[in-house]
Specification:
single chain, about 100 residues, mainly alpha, about 65% helix, elongated
Length: about 100
């Protein structure tokens, strides 16, 4: 079971029509794991959902963007006056709370 998932608490119903051969595979896989078809489907679909979400949340850069990003990390530009002011305000705020 994935972290944060439990068998207790709120649940919702999900119904799906699947080809017979797919259902047979699901039943066999669940049996091999020693769990119910429902538990297998929940586990498998939740894992796939997490995988898809993580892939889509990843930042994708072109080669040119990667090079510009690396250059900015290796040779950062001089801070602007606004950034210096923000850093001073932050430093003063943190110091006043200590």
């Amino acid at each position: 079971m994935l972290p944060g998932m439990s068998d207790t608490g709120n649940s919702s119903r999900l119904e799906a029509r699947v080809p017979t051969r797919v259902l047979d595979m699901i039943k066999r896989a669940a049996e091999l794991r020693g769990i119910s078809v429902t538990s297998f489907v929940i586990e498998a679909t939740a894992e796939k959902a997490v995988q898809v979400i993580e892939q889509m949340d990843a930042i994708r850069l072109t080669r040119e963007e990667q090079a510009r990003f690396a250059e900015a990390l290796l040779n950062p530009p001089e801070p602007t006056e606004a950034l210096r002011d923000a850093a001073r305000r932050h430093r003063d705020l943190v110091a006043s709370k200590s």
